[in-house]
Every structure is written in C-alpha cells, then in structure tokens.
C-alpha cells in the first residue's frame, strides 16, 4: 500500500478504535507518582523546578485574581509540551497536529476568559471594542473590526499551533525521504542532507517547545485583559 506524506497525521487505530486518546494520556506516565515526600530523586527535583519556572513565567503578567488560573494554564502547558515533543519520536502520533483538538483546547479557554471579563467588569471589557478618542464616523467600522479580531482569536490559536507543527513534520519527512533516496546515487549529497535533517530536527524540538509556550502565553494575555 502506498503511503502519502499526510498519512502521518491520521490517528492510528487498533481494531477500528482511534488511539488518539491513548496518545494524549501517555505523557501522564512521565509525571512523578505521588509520594509522602516532596522530593524523592533528581528527576522529581528537575520536574518541580520546571513546573515552578513555567508557573512563574505565566503568572508574572497577571494580577492576584488571575492566579486562580495557575493550575489550568500550567497543566495545559505541560500537556502541549509533552505531546509536541513525544510526537517527534519515530512511530508516534502527534495529537496537536489535529486542528479539531487544538480548537477544542483554544475555544473553551478563550470563551472562559471572555465571560470572566463580561461578568466582573463588563464596561471595561466592552470598552476594548472602541479605542478612546475614535472619530464619530469611524465608530461603526472600528467596532466591527475589533469584534472580528476578538472572535478570531481562538481560531488563530488553533491554526497557529497546527500549522507550525504540521509544516515541521512535513519538512522532516521530505528531507528524510530525500536522504534515503540519494544514498545509493550520491552518497556525499546524502550525508549533507542528513546533516540538514539533524539541524532541522533540533529546530523542530525548539519549535515544539516555543509553540506550546506561545499558546498558553496568549491565553494568559487574553485573561489579563479581562481581569
């Protein structure tokens, strides 16, 4: 059976059952098991330091009322980071290349930040739709533009994450296919292509971490506007 470049983005199935849920739950196995002691080994120390660093970076722009979201945002960051990085391993599947999953994460959280602002400070939240000092003739157009930009925020979050990860996976597959195809014909060129593939893989690891951080950081900024 001939496989296309986009077959790597289809959810694997076992007996007709999609395994995307298993792919999402697998990163939880990397977390430390509960113990009566806070720090049991070097791995737990490193993980606690990493969680503290993420929480500090995400909560710094927020005021005290926004710290209630610390657990949600940190958990989302760890989930995205783990799924993005594990998806770079051979014979694995990356759930975050699916737009449906990213939209399922982005839309409810964006809606929660919006409803929080409308409930706590409705006048200030609605005031973002019309900048101060706007000429009278431009008021209807600016309200429509600001409303549109507000409504496409969850779509931008989901599409950004999906597009960056999909493009990186496709580039890795294209260059790896070229490396294998050139090996018997032009070994020297194949070796150079393999070096490019190694550099691209390192870049894709960085992209996987950066995109997870950007996704959660933008959510925290949306939250900051509404609290």
Automatic annotation (TrEMBL):
Source organism per UniProt: Thalassarche chrysostoma (Grey-headed albatross)
Transmembrane segments: 12-31, 69-89, 101-118, 138-159, 171-199, 205-223
Designated name of the protein: ATP synthase subunit a
Lineage, uppermost ranks: Eukaryota, Metazoa, Chordata, Craniata, Vertebrata
PANTHER family: ATP SYNTHASE SUBUNIT A
Domain of life: Eukaryota
GO cellular component: mitochondrial inner membrane; proton-transporting ATP synthase complex
Keyword Endoplasmic reticulum listed: no
Compartments reported by the entry: Mitochondrion inner membrane
GO MF annotations in UniProt: proton-transporting ATP synthase activity, rotational mechanism
Assembly, per entry: Component of the ATP synthase complex composed at least of ATP5F1A/subunit alpha, ATP5F1B/subunit beta, ATP5MC1/subunit c (homooctomer), MT-ATP6/subunit a, MT-ATP8/subunit 8, ATP5ME/subunit e, ATP5MF/subunit f, ATP5MG/subunit g, ATP5MK/subunit k, ATP5MJ/subunit j, ATP5F1C/subunit gamma, ATP5F1D/subunit delta, ATP5F1E/subunit epsilon, ATP5PF/subunit F6, ATP5PB/subunit b, ATP5PD/subunit d, ATP5PO/subunit OSCP.
Membrane topology, as annotated: Multi-pass membrane protein
Family of the protein in this entry: Belongs to the ATPase A chain family.
Keywords for the protein's UniProt record, in alphabetical order: ATP synthesis, CF(0), Hydrogen ion transport, Ion transport, Membrane, Mitochondrion, Mitochondrion inner membrane, Transmembrane, Transmembrane helix, Transport
InterPro entries: ATP_synth_F0_asu, ATP_synth_F0_asu_AS, ATP_synth_F0_asu_bact/mt, F0_ATP_A_sf
Keyword Ion transport: yes
Reaction it catalyzes: H(+)(in) = H(+)(out)
Short name of any one Pfam family annotated for the protein: ATP-synt_A
């Amino acid at each position: 059976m001939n496989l296309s470049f986009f077959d790597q983005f289809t959810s694997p199935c076992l007996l007709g059952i999609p395994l995307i849920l298993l792919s999402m739950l697998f990163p939880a196995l990397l977390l430390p098991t509960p113990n009566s002691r806070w720090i049991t080994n070097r791995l737990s120390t490193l993980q606690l330091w990493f969680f503290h660093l993420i929480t500090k970076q995400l909560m710094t722009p927020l005021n005290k009322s926004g710290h209630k979201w610390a657990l949600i945002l940190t958990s989302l960051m760890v989930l995205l980071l783990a799924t993005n990085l594990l998806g770079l391993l051979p014979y694995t599947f990356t759930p975050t290349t699916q737009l449906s999953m990213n939209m399922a994460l982005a839309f409810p959280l964006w809606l929660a930040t919006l409803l929080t602002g409308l409930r706590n400070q409705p006048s200030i939240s609605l005031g973002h739709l019309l900048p101060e000092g706007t000429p009278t003739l431009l008021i209807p157009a600016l309200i429509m533009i600001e409303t549109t930009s507000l409504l496409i925020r969850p779509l931008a979050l989901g599409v950004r994450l999906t597009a960056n990860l999909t493009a990186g996976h496709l580039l890795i597959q294209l260059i790896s296919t070229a490396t294998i195809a050139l090996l018997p014909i032009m070994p020297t060129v194949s070796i150079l292509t393999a070096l490019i593939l190694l550099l691209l893989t390192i870049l894709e690891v960085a992209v996987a971490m950066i995109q997870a951080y950007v996704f959660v950081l933008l959510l925290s900024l949306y939250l900051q506007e509404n609290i």
